[in-house]
Amino acid sequence: MRPEQRQQFVATANNFNSAKMHQYRNPEIDDWRSDERYQTAYKALKNSKEHYSVDFAQSILAGRYGFMCQYDRKKNADTVWSVIYDLKRKQIWRVEGNPSRKKFKKDTRMKV
Question: Would you say residue 10 lies in a domain?
Answer without folding.
Answer: no
